[in-house]
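SAMPLE LOG
Freezer: B-3
Tube label: C17
Construct: single chain, 126 aa
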Amino acid sequence: MFNGLEHTAIASPNPQRLAEWYRDFLEFHINFEYAGNYFVRARNGSMLEIIPSEGERPSNKMRDPGIRHMAIEVDNFDEGHAYLKEKGVLFLGEPFTTQGNRLVFFADCDGNILHLIERPAPLPGY
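STRUCTURE (predicted):
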């Protein structure tokens, strides 16, 4: 009955700029826009809806309650990291390996936390 997440919404002070950032930096495709809202889709089909925000942004620390980061899967970690570094992305630390997974945390143009991830094997299914 329930198939999973269709999209996740992010509120932004400038939805168009953020949608274009995901397009230009992470190869997402802007696939739908209405009334200042943007849907962006990744190659694997995952989708974000970027909506206009209201008010001031609260604290945005790694362990604050709520959604804390989005993981961006890459085919080649070193190439993805080098590409983002070349484009001037703000990294929040150095790349590291944990349980065989390669990761590095970074921020989009609104300061939302993301990380690149390359797994040696996919997580188990259900």
